[in-house]
């Protein structure tokens, strides 16, 4: 299974990503994470998972701070992956930016 990091504040996922290794799961506790910056995954990584801690995808909300306007405030994306990231799984969470577009965010939910 690899390493599992449990996080429960907006700062903790950011911190976990700065020292991220392959074969790691970052498990977010039920909450709304009001991002002050994009969650960036970069480098040579494989088998990385970002997921909500429980099965209800609506219990973990990624709220980008620019959702009410043009997203020009430094949070262009909730989650961004680049470099050589392979086998990335994002599951059991909702992006609040997408939810604003359709009321419930079905297109932004990952189960």
Mean pLDDT: 79
> Which strands sit side by side, in order, in the main sheet?
1-2-4-6
The span between the termini is 19 Å
Helix percent reads 10-25%
Q: Largest sheet, described in full?
A: 4 strands, parallel
- Structural class per helix/strand content? mainly beta
Unreliable runs, pLDDT <50, ≥5 residues? 67-72, 98-111
Shape estimate: globular
Task: Name the beta content range.
Answer: 35-45%
Rounded to an integer in angstroms, the radius of gyration calculated over CA atoms is 13 Å
Describe this entry's structure for a reader.
The longest helix is centred in the first third of the chain and has 8 residues, at 11-18. The strands form 2 sheets. Strands 1-2-4-6 form a 4-stranded parallel beta sheet. Strands 3-5-7 form a 3-stranded parallel beta sheet. With 111 residues, the protein is mostly beta strands. Helix 1 links the parallel strand 1 and strand 2 (24-28). It has helices at 11-18, 96-102, and strands spanning 3-7, 24-28, 31-35, 39-52, 60-64, 79-91, 94-95.
């Amino acid at each position: 299974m690899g390493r599992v990091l449990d996080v429960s504040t907006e700062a903790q996922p950011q911190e976990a990503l700065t020292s991220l290794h392959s074969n790691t799961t970052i498990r977010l506790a039920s909450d709304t994470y009001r991002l002050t910056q994009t969650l960036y995954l970069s480098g040579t990584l494989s088998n990385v998972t970002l997921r909500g801690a429980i099965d209800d995808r609506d219990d973990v909300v990624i709220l980008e701070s620019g959702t009410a306007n043009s997203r020009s405030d430094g949070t262009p994306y909730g989650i961004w992956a680049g470099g050589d990231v392979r086998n990335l799984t994002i599951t059991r969470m909702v992006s609040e930016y997408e939810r604003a577009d359709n009321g419930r965010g079905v297109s932004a939910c990952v189960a």
